[in-house]
């Protein structure tokens, strides 16, 4: 009996010790057993600004040139309101069925699965990941163009504005891919706050430079030709070109506001108190408002500076030549920003593939094992051979595609068109209707459906315009040439 009592006591102490260890670990865990989130309003706003203010701002002067003084600013304002409204609906779908106390959805797809399920879940996955891949390819193109523009700017400064100064983007795409291979080893979104903060500062910086250069050009007495309806049929373009360019401009503006596809992932970085949906709605309002102010200024003043001849990218299209050093700084800031933005958009892809492979091959050590490496100044770092191979392969593939199709405006317009309706409007609206239990044919249901169908028509038109632009750009194009 004494032996039994001693064994029982030992078992009790062992269990109590295990409980104490478990309790101590709970300080580092959330209520669902995952790592404790540390994000807040500031970090979420930085993630949003990083995701929204991207290469899209560079094409807005061209977009407004196609639409004119009336439709251009009106379309920008309309897209900002739609994005903010639908993002607010999406923020309430982070937890389900209750937006405050429900179960967490860790990704956009899991939110759709929890609220809609079935075929819509699969369609969402297709739309989201095709868009995310497209964005990462677009950012590779944009960064390479910006870095090549630095070399061209210095060439123009030395040899004059009429010099050929041909530069291949391929070398810069390879360099960008090498940087992304290293950064892609960052395990997840929770480790990206510092990168997003740096990228957000860069986005403000180059937008401000472009804005300042446009103001200076106007102050010098720009003789740019502008009009209420944009480029003039019969003078600047044919009637058919006017239609296609108008559609493509809609796609470029839609791309400039694309961040809904990573909204849930950003929200998943927020601390549970105060409620994530409330913090995310505030961060979304600040992010969208801030970017809209910048977009209006850059687009409107860019159009005023260049008129109907506005370049597709107003920092790399050489609407500005001098001061060449300031143009160089602006393009360097673009490159730094898009290095961070690339990671914000590719992390959901990485996480999806890694979760899928681990669930299918849970006993495969190559897929599941991690090794802790001590790095100077960074401390313990979780290293995975599978993550190294898979993420490196992804970066290489996107870089190769970017080398084959390096068309800035057309590619951005197509990405924006494909993503805008399904990810920014349709799924948030459908999830809100389901979660809020809005009755079919009620007033709220009807106007939400009108909003969704209108945005669908805009997306189709924008996609058609961008595809036509790509076909035109591909005529006579030779890949991997200057």
UniProtKB/TrEMBL annotation:
Q: Could you tell me which residue ranges the Amino acid transporter transmembrane domain spans?
A: 38-471
A Gene Ontology MF term for this entry?
Answer: symporter activity
Identify the Pfam families for this entry: Aa_trans
What keywords would UniProt list here? Amino-acid transport, Cell membrane, Membrane, Symport, Transmembrane, Transmembrane helix, Transport
Q: Does the keyword Ligase apply?
A: no
The record lists the membrane-crossing segments as 41-64, 70-94, 129-150, 192-216, 283-304, 324-345, 388-408, 414-433, 445-471
Domain of life, per the record? Eukaryota
Q: Which residues form the signal peptide?
A: none
* A cellular-component GO term for this protein: plasma membrane
Q: Does the keyword Endoplasmic reticulum apply?
A: no
Q: What is its main location?
A: membrane
Q: Name one GO biological process term.
A: amino acid transport
The protein's location, in the record's own words, is: Cell membrane
UniProt cross-references to InterPro entries, sorted A to Z: AA_transpt_TM
Family, as annotated:
Belongs to the amino acid/polyamine transporter 2 family. Amino acid/auxin permease (AAAP) (TC 2.A.18.2) subfamily.
* Identification of the protein by name: Amino acid transporter transmembrane domain-containing protein
Question: Native species of this protein?
Answer: Dendrobium nobile
Lineage of source species: Eukaryota, Viridiplantae, Streptophyta, Embryophyta, Tracheophyta
